[in-house]
Amino acid sequence: MMPLTLLSPHHAYWAWQELNAAALAASIFLLFAPRYSGLSRYLALSLAAFAILYPPVGNSFALAQSKILLLLLLTAMIRCMRCGRDSIAGLLLATAGLCWLFPLLLGLYVVLKRRWRMLGFLIAGLAIGGVATVALEGVRTSFSFLTSIDFLTSRTWLSSDSNLSLEAFVSRIFWDMFGAASSPSRELARSAFVRGADLAVLYMIVRATPLGTGEDRDWRTLSLWIAASVILSPTAWFHYLLLMLIPFAQMARAANGGRISRRAPWMAAASYLLTGLIGNALAMVPPHSMASSALRELEFACLVMAFVAAYWFAADQRFLVECSAG
Q: Which residue of 71, 92, 94, 129 pairs with 77 in a disulfide if CB–CB is 3.0 to 4.6 A?
């Protein structure tokens, strides 16, 4: 971010937004371009338009957030994996992990799929980036993020109805059921509820991931792991949903080739449409009202629906086998 400080606030803002726009254009190209996706030009343009109109994308620009850059890193990583360039893919994932941390969950996917070259470059990239950060910024500054994690997972943020993480949603349910009073025993119980939910999600995605070096056709399980990285993130906001463009794009690619059952794309479409309905409804109700709070909670439903669609897409291996046999 330091180069932006050399500019005036006005020019720095627009330089950042132009960078985000370029990253979005590159991501959409890698996701939908006929040469990569196998889609027809008309269908690719239509899906690209839907991607641009996806409400979390607009929200990311409105808040000048950085997740569009993460979207580009992950789409480029997938492209490199498809081309057999696991070394570059590992370095891209390391960059994403160094900048945002929660994408490192994908490292477990790399282990389960036994992409050892990618894993080696992931570890090397993390080590080099970590050492460089400590050398340039010092130990105290480099590890100050640990304090920030404690702050971002404090009750102040977990109680916000705009926080879409699983931990925040489970915590709000716990406080509604058992009261808002804080005590060591209640905090321990809440933490147990949260960790149980996290482990349940982790069990689901590991079980849906075929072990070994076999092909991940249409990147079904990788799409699931990307969706899981968002829902398991310590904090997640509405603009994080733009990462769902990756599983949505892979579902569209599979549907175009007749390699997907109906339930996954219909659930993905419902998640997409619900985000738009919530945005329009929020514009019609007073902010900080009960109606606004209820609509904010529905944003978590959008994330869950996208995750379920990705899970069905990954777990529905029987349909893929039947298609191959046919």
A: 92
Domain count, the chain: 1
- The token pair at 166 is 């699983």
Give the structural domain span for 315: 2-325
Radius of gyration over alpha carbons of the chain, in Å? Answer: 20
Query: Of 58, 59, 69, 54, nearest to 23 (Cα)?
Result: 69
pTM for this prediction: 0.93
- Distance in angstroms (rounded) separating the CA atoms of residues 119 and 109: 10
Digit-coded pLDDT (tens) for 183-231: 888 889 999 999 999 999 999 999 999 988 888 989 999 999 999 999 9
| pLDDT single digits (tens) 116-160 | 999 999 999 999 999 999 998 888 888 887 777 777 788 888 989
